[in-house]
User: What shape does this take?
Amino acid sequence: MKLIIAIIQPHKLDSVKAALEDVGINLMTVTNVLGQGRQKGHTEIYRGAKEAGGLLNKVRLDIAVNEDFVEPAIKAITKGAHTSDVGDGKIFIVDLAECVRISSAERGSAAIG
Amino acid sequence: MNSGDTAWVLMSSALVLLMTVPGLAFFYGGLVRRKNVLSILMQCFIILCVISLQWVLFGYSLAFGPDFHGIIGDLSWAGLNGVGALPNKDYAATIPHSVFMIFQMMFAVITPALIIGAYAERVKFPAFLLFTILWATFVYDPLAHWVWGTGGWLKNLGALDFAGGIVVHVSSGISALILALLLGKRVGYNHKPIRPHNLPFTVLGGALLWFGWFGFNAGSALAADGIAANAFITTNTATAAAGLTWALIEWWHNGSPTILGTVTGAVAGLVAITPACGFVNPMNAMFMGMIVAAVCYIAVAVIKAKLGYDDSLDAFGVHGVGGTVGTIATGIFAEKAVNAAGNNGLLFGNAHQLVVQSLSLIVAITFAVVMTFIIFKIVDALVGMRVEEKNEIVGLDLTQQSEAAYTVIE
Assistant: This one.
């Protein structure tokens, strides 16, 4: 089991979600987050005063999957989120020790899908 | 007595109330960080409560009561004694004296509220309250008497201030600068972004200010007549010109026209036309709006940054500077053809009016600077003006009001 954490551009959420559903991944947690990468945030102007270092809006997806779905998920997210510019985001993959479905108390691989 | 005049001034009083709460409250409230929004709303709201009472008890009598050597009113109208349904011929012959009193009350309320912009996000609540009461009593009331009160010495000198350019905006704006200097910068100023937390609030508040200002300016005619109509039209015209001008300057200077800039420009236009609205024609009002937007933009975006004082919400940059521009412009553009009770300005052959306007300005500025300094020192010694650094970082909503504006989780 792996936990896939993807940080993407907010305007790419719909296409990433569609691409994930195409490969059979329908379960995910989505949050609005702030962050900056190589493009170093952005500048806002208030009454002529430039406020640099503002963090950018990003969307974070948390997706728990069984091993078979890891590569398809990476491909789907990359395809959906790609614009080839800096700021497209990142995908992090970590080992997942356990998963419990609260309604049935199922555990492990059976609980993920 | 004229029922049309009475209805208009009563209605205008309600419009001016709307300028403080919710107008100014939301204009300022949106500009602060989310941890301080309730402190601003509270300060505006409690000023409405406190000054309403101060005005009934003794404020009105000090400002407009029977003259004592041109300097202050005496206390014979304290508790509104004798201020009733009969008109006071000196102030407004066609409306009840009590109607004139309630209209002026709303001016007394909004003036100290304008100063909030200077000490926002770092003032201790008890200190704010004490400062406000002392400032209203020892700065606003005397100044209102000098300029508007029967027997007031600046009024006798011939100063023109139709709706409060000197009394309201210069006095509060200059006091705001002194407070900002004495209080010091907010923690983190210049080191990290201090961004407005809710610009839609600011736009809502700014738009309500524009709306309420029709009562402030056109109501100051104290009659439903041609002068009121002229004030209404010049107010709208100057404001529109100032809002557009600020947006264009920003567009050219920074690459984007912002809504915050447009609203700020509009408020600067409202401030500048305030002393002039009943004395100038609409085309000159348009010109005044363009000038004030440019001058206030330079004050807020260039000079403030260069000098490094932290006038949190630009109370000085908009009201102090805008009020000064408007007061001087009144001495230039005023014409008797618009209002026979006024005077001609420089442009219409009367350079003396410009001298009187400038002199009144210097007097008001000096008075506001000295008195604000003294009141600050007294209040600071008694209760401490500024919150502790830890409380400033946590925010005034939690530390001064023990409440939070927004929940993160239900």
